[in-house]
Each structure stands twice: as structure tokens, then as C-alpha cells.
Protein: CAP-Gly domain-containing protein
Amino acid sequence: MSESVQIISSDTVKLNVSNSANDVITFEKKFDKKQTVGELKTKLEILTGGNQMSMQIELYSGSKLVCKFDNDAAMLGSFPVEDGMRLHVIIADPILSLEQNVEKFELTDQQYENRQDSVRSFLKRNKLGKYNEEEMKQLEAKRHEIEQKELERTEKISIGDRCKVTTSGQPTRIGSVMYKGSLEGKKGVFIGVKFDEPLGVNDGSVNGKRYFDCPPKYGSFVLPSAVEVGDFPEEEINFDDEI
Structure:
């Protein structure tokens, strides 16, 4: 008699949330996988101040775009969400516009500020999102703590070190540290790694700027927290063992 295998999956997922309006990141918010994207947008409206009718949501693993949530009726769990990933909310301009045969109507920032029926007014009255001073302090402290840990880890990593890279949604990869520092247009410190196998995403360059040299698909830039340095010798392949 064959035994059935039961796969147990959590009904919730912990995700970070960023948005296009500012640099604030909300860390490790728990979301129900059974809620629809439409319901998710309602919660993100309060969290980010965006309008759910016009917001767009993208899912990232590190700096890599995993997918876009383009179906409001789909459940969150139907997308490849995993703990630690990041939801990026693209917020449309709050200025109102009517495009179909109607004269364009615009509000100045001061007029929008004075409105009592706006999302901004709602957030202020209820001290939510960026208008919750205590929550903003906690987020800033959390962000500072993470930045400090990344810097401390970076100091222990040297060019030429052998390393193991572990990132969400990717197999464990072995390689050598080729670069550490900032990337043009990106915030924070990154580690450039040349992998032993073609399991990367670039050739040591990003957006046309080169940071180190390696063959295509052998290079990647990852956060210091994903890198473990140590004695990781390159695996030798013995073709005599193949049949």
C-alpha cells in the first residue's frame, strides 16, 4: 500500500513592502495567502497611501523582479510568494484627471492637502502609515539596524574570497568575490560574485557599467547578508564517471 504524502504549506506569508512614493520600507508584514489581489490592494492603500484603483504591485526577490500582480481576482497564494520577498507598490500621481471627453481637472498640492475626503486626510486622522510617528521611528530603527548588519558583514568580505551565496528562489551557488561597494543608481552596498557555474544573471556589468569581468550568466550582485565566505573549493568534474 503506497503512503500518501501531505504537503503542509503556511496560510500566511511575511513580506516586506516598498512603494514608489518614498524610500520607506515596511518590514515583515504578514499577509493571508487566501486573500485576493483586490483585497491586498485595500490593505496596501492604508499602508502606503496609494489609491487601490490605480496602484500596481510587483513582487521582488532581492532586486530581481519575480512577477506582477495583474489579476485582482487571483489569490495571493497563486503567485510564487515566499517569506522575505518584497511587494513594491507603484503609486499613481494623486492629482485627479478625467480623460474621456471631460476637461482635465487638476488639484494643486495645497488643495489636495485641504481636502477632507482624500486618502492623505484619512491617514492623518487615523495616524496610519507615514503619519504614525511611532511606527516611522520603529521602521527607521529597523532599517538602521539592517544597514549596520550589512556593513559589518561587508567588512568581513574581501575581494578574492571564496563564497557561498544563498538567496530566495535560487539554488545555493558557489563562487568568488569580485567586487564590493555601491552600484550606480542603487542604494546600499552590494557584493559582486563570479559563480563557478552559469547560475548568475550578468557578466559583471549592470546597466552598461562594468564592475568586474566574467562570462555571461556567471555574475551577480547580491546583498552582503546573502554571502558566506569560507573554504568552498571549486568542484572538479570527472567525465570518466559519466556513462
Summary: Residues 133-155 form the longest helix (23 residues). The first strand starts at residue 12 and ends at 19. The CA atoms of residues 154 and 230 lie 14 Å apart.
